Amino acid sequence: MLTIKDLKVSVEEKEILKGLSLQVNAGEVHAIMGPHGSGKSTLSHVLAGKDGYQVNSGSVTYKGSDLLELETEERAHQGIFLAMQYPVELPGVNNMVFLRESYNALRKARGEDEIDSPAFIKLIREKADQVKLPAKLLKRSVNSGFSGGEKKRNEILQMALLEPSLAILDETDSGLDIDALRIVADGVNQLRSPDRAMIVVTHYQRLLDYIKPDVVHVLADGQIIKTGDFSLVKELEDKGYGWLIDEEAA
Amino acid sequence: MSAGQNQGEWLEEFKQGLNQSEVEANSSNSLDSLRREAVEALMSEPLPFRKMERWRYTPVAGLFKLPLNILKNQPANDTGYEELFSMGLDSHRFAVINGHAHFLGDINELPAGVIFSTMHDAAVKHEALLSQYAGKAMSQQGTQNRLQASLVNKDSKLFQYLNQSISPDGIFIHVPEGIKLEKPVEVVFFKSGNQADLVQTHNVVVLEKDAAMTLHEKHVDEEASQSFCNNQLEMIIGDNASLQHYYLQQQGSSGWHRQGMHRIQAEASRYRGWYGCCGSQWSRLETTVIFSGDNAESDVQGIQLALNGQLSDIHLDTRHDQPGCHSEQHFRGLVTGKSKIVFDGNITVSQDAQKTIAHLSDNNLMLTRNAEIDAKPQLEIYADDVQCSHGTSIGELDEQSVFYLRSRGISEQQARNLLSIGFVAEQIDKIELEAFRQYMLDLLEIQLQAAQKQENPDDGQ
User: CB contact, 8 Å: A87 with chain B?
Assistant: First the structure.
């Protein structure tokens, strides 16, 4: 589904990703772990098409085409979804309106009819219930005055609604208490399917205990330095990142 | 009927017409005395121009070059007024068509003592009452020289004199002591036809002690006309009386619009206003507020839209001369294309006005680089025990927010629309009248989309 080859990316002249390669197949859940500043968020943002990142070399192929050629919204239309580390507040933009616009934009891109308002309200209530987002938050401005946990739940709600082919969760677990963490993990687990892939970017192993990813990568200094199965998470929990980075340097 | 040929000369022609008209020199009628004062002052009043502080950012020369027809406007047809009231409010209705006022309801259904009238009728039927109030909200003067003493536009009172010099028609409402009107009063000012007319109205709303009402005014026109609508609205709010007021200006994009809005509030009175300045190629709203008693409250919220090469200009003057009064004035502006917003907010707190609370803010969103915003807040405080603040801001759309929406599949244009609408919608959400709130949200979306079509005519979809 996603093939990244030797990707080098700079931000303001500084190289952050230094030749990153990654293969993600449909049906798989990958975790990308790594210390702060290793390039985890840069990878997420480049995949979603955010401005301000200079791709120097390498390639990203998604469903057989060059992902980097696509605009941000086109990537969303093709099934890419990024759950943000810091979801922005959009004062004055009603959450329900935003969710419907987004849902219909994807339907339109697929050549389907837009959903009408009553049908959408029914759908979104079900989804909100599923991710335990209080219905009253649907009527408020997007993320405005939401607690940290509510913002992340709103991200998971969007993921559940838009049903992406490739979901990227960028440190969605940061700043969450154990209950909120469960909800995020449940959201991911419910969406697991043979035709969908997920990349869970995180600094901590806690979320992964609930998700149990198929493949675990360690990202350090802009490169994947280790790939393993779930047992790697345990190892990192016990030993930290230090030994891997030392091993790499040696 | 040669006005069309005399470009740039309508004002001169207007003045000549006044010289020949018969203002009864010795009439004791107060409207006549206002009119005499206005006619005399108009002759020597300078035209506003850029060197005047209050006109620094507002080009006005074009107004005097309009091919205006200054002769008496023809009344419109007597039918079809109901269509103007598109908001579906259960209301008492006035239609003011080309400057001629009509009450559309049955006055027998009004609570006892309430007067709903046209200004012209009131000058005959309620002469004593009208004399007491006409011109009063403009200044605290007795019946003499009310216009000259008015606070508005110290640089040039030309438009005030122009308005009063013909004693135009308009609405007159008088709510006696203790009466609270349940239904809102809805007034639609409508300019029909495509003829470039000078349309003027003078409107007076009086609430006696403990009275209460809601006033909803809307300004619209029928089709492209370079008319100039010059209105005055006076609001006299008695002790402990309460007025809720909505003002919406949505005339078409070739019209010119000026409104003077003058208010005087007695002890413990309350005023809540929401102003939507959305229409006309050139518009100017000039408001003055005087507190004549202590502990009065005034809360004014509003929006300014300048989308299609429009100029939207607001001047607020709030005078705190009495102790313990509270005024809030908060506006948001949205400007795009080669349009322009002027916001000039002034609060004066005199030495005796201790315990005053006064806040003013004006926040603007600029969607294009060639738009212009001139925001000038001013706070003059001579008392020492007060809580006052003012602030203005001019910003652009947050690119993080645009990215967030695009990452959810929403096109860049639509993302910018949603965020722009959101910025203004926060202000629209303060409207308590649900039908009007929804009307404003729809209007905003329609106007923004129309502006985009104008700017990017090649964009499909």
Answer: yes
